[in-house]
Amino acid sequence: MTTEADLAIVQTDLAALRKDVSSLLEHLKLSASNGAQTAASQLDGSARRTYGRVAAEGERSIKALGTQIEEQPVIALLIALGVGYFGGRLLSR
Question: How far is CA 92 from CA 60, 79, 83, 85, in A?
Answer without folding.
Answer: 34, 20, 14, 11
